């Protein structure tokens, strides 16, 4: 079942009931505000008061407010330029089958170049082609109203709703600017405070992948930091490092190894030295020296030799 879930892309559920409820309520509030505020325009102009693609935008803004595809520029520019592309194609291409396909493909391309990728924009472009006479009669005004009017309304609702919950920082850039402007504010640990690399390295890694990933370098840095903190809790404590005991780094393949502590200076601050020899795996028969703190970070758990296999001490 795990293999099937991996193939289907079913990830572990990492959100609580409160987060799911907030997302649903936020989507409800966003759409009902659009329908209520644009109802007079719809009656006067004779076009639909809301474009269905706003429902997809609501999912992004309230269920994934920290994602790159959910940011204000992506929302506004993505919908706006997609509407323009859709209207242009609708006016220039007659066959409906070809026009709809060109509108969506063109919108994707232009959004990509503008760094404004917003998946619901594809639906916005398609509606410009297949939305019927009320939409066609609007021409390029379609991009302004109802599209950008709807987008601005749902953006305002998303900012207000997410602001009510301190962990839903939307848009993240707004909160970062606010925190920097407050000299008395307690600054969060900088995302670039990484042991082995910084944000430039993460930017480089994202560029080397070559495909669009819905995560920023700041998010990656936070994920890395939290993962390191969690991994540190699974390493052996300083007071468990004893002379004569064996420890493994818990890695797989050629990185796996087992070290035996030959001697150690049991200083409580972790600065004391550990002399060890590698008895199995990588660098076997080699000796080395490091601080107790470094050894504790390397050692994931204590092991013992049971006949011909190393087993974890429970």
Automatic annotation (TrEMBL):
Transmembrane segments: 21-39, 46-65, 71-89, 96-114, 140-165
Keyword set, alphabetical order: Membrane, Transmembrane, Transmembrane helix
UniProt feature coiled coil, ranges: none
Keyword Transmembrane helix: yes
InterPro entries: HPP (IPR007065), TM_HPP (IPR058581)
Domain HPP transmembrane region intervals: 18-171
Descriptive protein name: HPP transmembrane region domain-containing protein
Organism listed in the record: Thiohalobacter thiocyanaticus
């Amino acid at each position: 079942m795990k293999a099937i879930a991996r193939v289907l892309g079913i990830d572990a559920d990492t959100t609580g009931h409160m987060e799911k409820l907030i997302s649903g309520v936020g989507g409800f509030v966003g759409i009902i505000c659009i329908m209520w505020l644009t109802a007079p325009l719809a009656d006067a102009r004779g076009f639909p008061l809301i474009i269905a693609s706003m429902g997809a935008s609501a999912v992004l803004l309230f269920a994934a407010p920290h994602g790159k595809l959910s940011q204000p520029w992506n929302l506004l520019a993505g919908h706006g330029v997609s509407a323009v592309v859709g209207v242009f194609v609708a006016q220039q291409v007659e066959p409906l089958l070809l026009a709809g396909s060109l509108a969506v493909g063109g919108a994707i391309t232009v959004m990509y170049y503008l760094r404004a990728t917003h998946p619901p924009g594809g639906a916005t472009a398609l509606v410009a082609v297949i939305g019927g006479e009320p939409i066609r009669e609007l021409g390029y005004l379609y991009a302004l109203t109802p599209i950008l009017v709807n987008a601005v309304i749902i953006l305002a609702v998303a900012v207000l709703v997410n602001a009510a919950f301190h962990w839903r920082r939307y848009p993240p850039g707004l909160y970062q600017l606010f925190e920097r402007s407050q000299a008395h504010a307690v600054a969060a640990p900088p995302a670039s405070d990484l042991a082995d690399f910084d944000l430039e390295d993460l930017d480089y890694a994202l560029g080397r992948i070559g495909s669009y990933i819905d995560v920023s370098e700041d998010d990656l840095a936070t994920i890395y930091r939290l993962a390191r903190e969690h991994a540190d809790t699974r390493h052996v404590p300083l007071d468990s490092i004893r002379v004569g005991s064996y420890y493994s780094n818990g890695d797989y393949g050629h990185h796996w190894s087992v070290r035996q502590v030959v001697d150690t200076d049991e200083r409580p601050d972790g600065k004391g030295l550990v002399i060890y020899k590698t008895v199995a795996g990588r660098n076997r028969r080699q000796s080395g020296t490091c601080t107790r703190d470094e050894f504790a970070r390397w050692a994931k758990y204590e092991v013992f030799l049971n006949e011909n296999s190393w087993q974890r001490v429970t």
